[in-house]
């Protein structure tokens, strides 16, 4: 049986994005981060909504329209509206996210 915490590589030069399921405009992804952050000056600007939850580890997001980072720990989640520009400013080792795009 598949497990969200199985097969997590120890050495990740880049974040790992895996599509777990999807249909029509909905896509569910597991994201594994190991200290990666968004490149300096880069902002995500997505056409779809994204709901994301941290299942393991911790992270910080910065939204362009806010002056402070949003801290996320285990169980913390956030809904990101389409075209709300954001970036990842911190991830702990072996951070596992679950993201739903719609």
From TrEMBL:
Source organism, top-level taxon: Bacteria
Q: Where is the Cupin type-2 domain?
A: 45-100
Q: Spell out the InterPro entries in the cross-references.
A: Cupin_2, RmlC-like_jellyroll, RmlC_Cupin_sf
> Could you tell me what this protein is called?
Cupin domain-containing protein
Q: What is the lineage of its organism?
A: Bacteria, Pseudomonadati, Pseudomonadota, Betaproteobacteria, Neisseriales
């Amino acid at each position: 049986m598949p497990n969200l915490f199985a097969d997590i590589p120890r050495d990740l030069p880049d974040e790992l994005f895996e599509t777990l399921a999807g249909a029509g405009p909905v896509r569910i992804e597991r994201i594994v981060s190991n200290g990666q952050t968004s490149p300096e000056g880069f902002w995500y600007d997505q056409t779809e909504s994204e709901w994301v939850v941290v299942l393991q580890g911790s992270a910080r997001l910065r939204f362009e329209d806010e002056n402070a980072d949003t801290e996320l720990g285990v169980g913390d989640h956030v809904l990101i509206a389409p075209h709300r520009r954001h970036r990842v400013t911190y991830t702990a080792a072996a951070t596992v996210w679950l993201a739903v795009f719609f």
